[in-house]
Specification:
Blueprint (H helix, E strand, L loop, with lengths): L2 H10 L3 H14 L4 H24 L1 H26 L1
Helix pairs in contact: 1-2, 1-4, 2-3, 3-4
Length: about 80
């Protein structure tokens, strides 16, 4: 299971706090690629924003926030695969 699978599993389990911790750790561990770091920084900011909005508005936006987080994560995963190819 790679880091993207871990983050996606935590998003599915409604554990945004742990997902944020994993993103922060991976961002610090992978400094060799400026592009990947930039993508992870953007995802971290998006995830923190979505977490805040979900907490502020409750269940009304939770599913939409989770869907958006998964889509952003998919984009980063694809770009990461392209980078390693």
């Amino acid at each position: 299971m790679n880091i993207f699978d871990d983050i996606e599993a935590l998003l599915s389990a409604d554990d945004a706090t742990s997902a944020l911790a994993i993103v922060r750790t991976s961002r610090q561990a992978d400094q060799e690629s400026e592009t990947f770091s930039s993508l992870m920084n953007d995802f971290l900011l998006d995830l923190m924003t979505m977490s805040f909005v979900a907490e502020a508005f409750g269940g009304r936006v939770l599913d939409s926030s989770r869907t958006l987080a998964r889509k952003r994560l998919s984009k980063i995963k694809l770009l990461s695969l392209m980078r390693s190819a």
